[in-house]
Amino acid sequence: MREGVKVTHASVARRMGVKVGSVTQDLNEKYPVGQSAAERWAKFLDMEPWDIHPGIKKPAVTNEKLMRTTIREVLDAADTMEADIDAETIGMIASKIYVDCEKNEIYDVERIREKARTAIMFTTNK
């Protein structure tokens, strides 16, 4: 993995939509830009810092409504099926269902409920 990317006159000019000659300051042509410099340049260039530096990760966004629905349905399924499951297992099931629903864009409560019941059924011996 690279430690940084080179910010050159040409790359800044491209981002700003101006000619290379109009960018007059030395913009670290010889050395890679670190994360803090990438964050400053991102503000200057009106970009996101993870677009400049590969070491900066894009923040994850949690769909709070989907997370609440998933947890509620897993808890309801465990209660309905009278499953003897600890909190850690319930959290693991809810997390896996959440990731699957987020990835496949499933937001229907019935489908989430079905996934929760199936997961509880395979987790318990009942």
TrEMBL record:
GO terms for molecular function: DNA binding. InterPro entries: Lambda_DNA-bd_dom_sf. It comes from the Bacteria. Gene3D superfamilies: lambda repressor-like DNA-binding domains (1.10.260.40). This is Uncharacterized protein. It comes from Nitrosococcus halophilus (strain Nc4).
